[in-house]
Amino acid sequence: MPRTPRNRRATQVCTPDNVNQRVNALLHLVDADLQTENQKKRHKLLNGIAMYLTIRDMYSENRLDDEFWSVFETFYMMIPYERPVNMDHFKALIRSRTVVPIQDALVDTINTDLPFHERKANLSFVSKALHTIDNDYPIFDRKVKDFFNLPWYSGQDVFERIEKAVERYDRLRQFYHNRNRNGLDRLLEEYTRLLGAHMTPDDLQFHDRQFARNDAMRISDVKKIDFMIWKYWAA
């Protein structure tokens, strides 16, 4: 199937055909980067994978110390957006290692110190917590929202926003669940190609941790697709 440039004017939530079109557009962006001399996005992808593997290993080692939270918040670029979130409850959710219903997690992580009209449900933060606990849960963020053309979860009050956030996340999980039918599985093939057959230890390194290509291949399919969207989609 030929790769075509991305259409920025789509207004409907993606259907399987739309997802195929957007996969084509993303693959076009990958090709464009690979044709540049420094392959900037590919190098950012490898750096991101090494950072993610560091987080995953520290979590599996139960090293949830200040260093873990520093790497976690930097990797996910969370610091400027923490005000609406009860970070104590957010961290407690991750420490619990228990997947809870998305609605419960949204409610529990609201910063109730804020005036009622300023309270917000942060689906991006909650999805990152659930993904940390179970890597088959997808992450919702600005680029993922744009890639699938999902509407934002706005509403008149925090309760309506939570209801819409749950709907958006359910829809997102369906896209990933149906990846063999809507074309997302092609991003898995591209992820494998981008890692390449010839990698040096420096290619996947973060601080004092070095990883092999096989480490990067053993992350979940959901996260591989997320990496491709996160590093290449120009939201």
Structure description:
With 235 residues, this protein is an all-alpha fold. The protein contains twelve helices and two strands; from the N terminus they run ααααααααααββαα. It has a two-stranded antiparallel sheet. Helix 10 crosses helix 12 (221-232). The radius of gyration is 18 Å and the shape is globular. The two termini are 24 Å apart. Mean pLDDT is 91; it is low at 1-11.
Question: In brief, what are we looking at here?
Answer:
By secondary structure, the chain is an all-alpha fold. The chain contains 12 helices and 2 strands. Strands 1-2 form a two-stranded antiparallel sheet.
Descriptive terms for the model:
mainly alpha; 235 residues; two-stranded antiparallel ribbon; 12 helices
